[in-house]
Structures are given as structure tokens and as C-alpha cells.
Amino acid sequence: MRERLQKILAHAGVGSRRACEALIAEGRVAVNGAVVTEMGTRADAERDTIHVDGMPIAVKPDLLTVALYKPPGVVSTMDDDMGRPSLAQYVEKYEQRLYHVGRLDEDTEGLILLSNDGELTHRLTHPSYEVPKTYVARVEGQVTRGLARVLEKGITLEDGPIRVDKFVLRESQPRNSIVELTLHSGRNRIVRRIMEEVGHPVMELVRTRFATIDAGRLRPGKSRVIAGSELSALMHSVGM
């Protein structure tokens, strides 16, 4: 259904109807790539792509994206045939049927996204978009600062070379250390395999960031809806 553009923008949470009219008049709104300045312009929220100041606006009412803090011991599926705890029990409150965006292994906790937006999910998980993920790990042994250079230059695992985008040594003690890794690889158990290869097996692992989304103050088992400017930034990060 085609509606006035300012009404669509207001319903999407961009601002009041009057504020959205001002955005249109200033040439800051584009529909399907074309700048719109006419106040009577109509658009279809279900089919058209709308940007404000170059940022995508999520105007499709049935699409939902959620950030969940996955507890350890939960498998990254919506239904587990072995009866293990799954993601579904943590998002039952949402009316839409959601699908996990990528996976975290059973023992890893932290941020995972769920969505029913197929295009967004595809872009967030496809290797060509190189979406960065950040992890904090407690590892065995005393890590030295020189490890950052090694991992940022790259090492070779059994399934090929890998390098981290950024490595931060947060804490170093004789028995164990805390490190932070950012990388865009989606290979299975990649952080655990990297740290095992360099002699520091992972003891605990938490994903703290996925693309532009931070776990923030989410507690294990809790979730929140990604909307507004936060959702726009996420969409923009993968070229939507």
C-alpha cells in the first residue's frame, strides 16, 4: 500500500510528521536511490527502499531483529533434536518467527542476533561482507604482547591461513590471561582453534560485539529489539 512518505518515516520512528516533512524538503530523503523533495510523494513501505542522510530506514512493519545474550550450554538452533536448551526459549515473547544469524558454539556465551529479515541475515553471514565480530577470552598461560603481531600478521590452521583484525591483551598473569580478538571469519570454532594453535587454549569465551551491535548491558538469557538508528547503522554496515 502506498502512503505519504512523511507518514511512513514517522511510523518508522524517524521523528514527528512535521520533522519528517522538513527532512524531505531539505532533500535528505531518498526512495529507491532517488532524492525526494515533493511533500506529496507516496511510497510503499513493503517494497521501496528508503534512506535518510544515506542511512537505510527500516520501514517494513513485520521485520524484526533482536540481540540475545546466549548463555553457555545453549545450542545455536531454534529446535534441538537432542533436547538440549536452544535459542527458541529465549525469544518466545516475540510474535514473529525468528532465525539465528550465524552461530555460537555450545560452550561460548554472548551476543547472537536473531531476525526474520532474510536479506539482512544473508549479508551479515556471507563471507563477502566481512562482518567483524569481537570476542573476549580467558586463556591458559601468560600471554605476551608480541602475540598481537603474530596474530595480526596471520597464522595457518589445518583449513587454511587466518589472521585477526585486532588483538588486545587485557590482562596477563602466570596461569591465565584475558585477551580480546576482533575478526571477520565465520569459520567453525575459529577463536578457540586460533588460541589453541598459539599455545593458549581457551578457558572461557564471550562474544561481545557483532558488526555494529554491542552486547552492552545484556545479561545471559536476556534480549532486546534492535531498532531506529541502531538498526539503520547495522543495515548500512552491510550496504543496505
UniProtKB/TrEMBL annotation:
GO terms for biological process: enzyme-directed rRNA pseudouridine synthesis. Keywords: Isomerase, RNA-binding. InterPro entries: PsdUridine_s_RsuA/RluB/E/F_cat, PsdUridine_synth_cat_dom_sf, PsdUridine_synth_RsuA/RluA, PsdUridine_synth_RsuA/RluB/E/F, PsdUridine_synth_RsuA/RluB_CS, RsuA_PseudoU_synthase, S4_RNA-bd, S4_RNA-bd_sf. Its EC number is 5.4.99.-. One of its GO terms (molecular function) is rRNA pseudouridine synthase activity. Transmembrane segments: none annotated. Pfam families: PseudoU_synth_2 (PF00849), S4 (PF01479). Residues 3-65 form the RNA-binding S4 domain. The keyword Translocase does not apply. SUPFAM superfamilies: Alpha-L RNA-binding motif (SSF55174), Pseudouridine synthase (SSF55120). The keyword Isomerase applies. It catalyses: a uridine in RNA = a pseudouridine in RNA. Belongs to the pseudouridine synthase RsuA family. This is Pseudouridine synthase.
